[in-house]
Amino acid sequence: MNKISVRGGRKLQGEVNISTAKNSILPIIAASILSGDKCVIDEAPMLEDVFVISDVLRSISADININEEANRIVIDTSNIKDDSEPSSNLVKMMRASFLIMGPMISRFGKFRLSLPGGCNIGTRPIDLHLKGFSALGAEVNVGHGYVEAQAKKLIGNKIYLDFPSVGATENVMMAAVMAEGETIIENAAEEPEIQDLGKFLNNMGANIIGAGTDTIRIIGVKNMKGTTHKPICDRIEAGTFMIAAAITRSKIKINGVNEEYLKPIIAKLTEVGVKIALDGNSMYVDADSDLKPIDIKTMPYPGFPTDMQSQMAGLLCTIKGTSVITETIFENRFMHAAEMKRMGANIKIDGRSSIIEGVDKLTGAEVRATDLRAGAALILCGLAAEGETEVTDIYHVDRGYVSIEKKLQGLGADVERITG
Ligand code: EPU
């Protein structure tokens, strides 16, 4: 089992380049099903989750060529058949596999796949996705561990999402692009990755207005075609490196960022006392020892992202005083707390809040990555801790960070991957 070893205490310096976004490319790969033509993704992030969704598509006869040197993925879905059913083992490995449901119903009028399970951060139901498909006229059945949908013809409709779910917004958008007439999704998720998916779909021939706002209008088209796309930058990877600078009280330059997408993270780090300056697509992050505790509540975009909650907790553990983080998106996203406590952190969980009392120092320990962002947060804590930290179950981190140890080494951190 691979692990990452961090010897803490070093200041970081230099620059790091941010990859394109995991949460953009996953729905984009799913969306390529909508046309039988080839789609090309340039500057693709080479991540475990990208390999898994590619295998899911391969299991329904898509031909996917991943060129790791060129960071290019060529997707040919012409051989997918209307009775294709993906491998249930793969679907269980990654919840985002469910994003192929919308495109499959849209292209073939029917689809069946095994139900995605819960995961370490919460139960994560799919009711909003299914309500959306039903509203478009699909007959949806759930039973015996499977979900099935069929529709002779999808027809546009007005769909109000009870909660602005990222996945449901994406799945319904993809299902609706070739539905007859107009679909309006209200209370849609506004994440930048949804705007990116809208751009990709429009380049495939869709007619979507307002992706990235709370009301998305989709006018059904007859056909979709292949296209080439570069996903947007990964705002969560960028945020993670911003905290790497803050937690080590260092100054670094982060390249390939978009200020707009990072506003909620910039606002909170500025409140902590970190100095942040933008220069086009680059950002300077400068932290000295005089940082202040803060309160944070995770919210749908443009609120503070749940995907940055664990990393922020790591930083707040090193800042004197009391900080409170309230998690409103997932019910079980405090698994990092028990591991951070092994490093000397003082964190109490009270319902949906974690109360963090800053400590003088964290100390290295063997800790376990319980999920992707918790794993990244523990590596960050290791950078600030005295002595050596070993983060095990590092496969979680590899799902969403491209060569995290190499990027940190480039900033002067004493980090190595131990394989075996
Ligand atoms: N929800 C429902 N019913 C549904 C769908 C969602 O109740 O039908 C609930 C979920 O249980 C959760 C909340 O709504 O409590 C938000 O879930 P959402 O659907 O917005 O999340 P997602 O689409 O499953 C994406 C990202 C996550 C990120 C969330 C929230 C991808 C592939 N995943 O998940 O990313 O945390 O949005 O921003 O885009 C990560 O990268 O570490 C990660 C977990």
Automatic annotation (TrEMBL):
Q: Does the keyword Transferase apply?
A: yes
Q: Which reaction does it catalyse?
A: phosphoenolpyruvate + UDP-N-acetyl-alpha-D-glucosamine = UDP-N-acetyl-3-O-(1-carboxyvinyl)-alpha-D-glucosamine + phosphate
Q: Which residues bind UDP-N-acetyl-alpha-D-glucosamine?
A: R95, R124, P125, I126, D127, L128, D307, I329
Q: Where does phosphoenolpyruvate bind?
A: K22, N23
UniProt-annotated location(s): Cytoplasm
Domain (Enolpyruvate transferase): give its ranges. Answer: 6-408
Q: Which residues of this protein are catalytic?
A: C119
For this protein, the record's InterPro entries field holds: Enolpyruvate_Tfrase_dom, Enolpyruvate_Tfrase_sf, MurA_subfamily, RNA3'P_cycl/enolpyr_Trfase_a/b, UDP_GlcNAc_COvinyl_MurA
Entry-annotated residues carrying 2-(S-cysteinyl)pyruvic acid O-phosphothioketal: C119
| Keywords noted in UniProt | Cell cycle, Cell division, Cell shape, Cell wall biogenesis/degradation, Cytoplasm, Peptidoglycan synthesis, Pyruvate, Transferase
The signal peptide stretch is none
Q: Which Pfam families match?
A: EPSP_synthase
Known pathway: Cell wall biogenesis; peptidoglycan biosynthesis
Question: What is the enzyme's class at the highest EC level?
Answer: transferase
Q: Which terms in the Gene Ontology molecular function aspect does this entry carry? A: UDP-N-acetylglucosamine 1-carboxyvinyltransferase activity
Q: Cellular component per GO?
A: cytoplasm
Give me any GO biological process, just one: peptidoglycan biosynthetic process
Quote the EC number. 2.5.1.7
Give the similarity note: Belongs to the EPSP synthase family. MurA subfamily.
Its biological purpose is as follows: Cell wall formation. Adds enolpyruvyl to UDP-N-acetylglucosamine.
Q: What is this protein called?
A: UDP-N-acetylglucosamine 1-carboxyvinyltransferase
Q: Which gene name does the record give?
A: murA
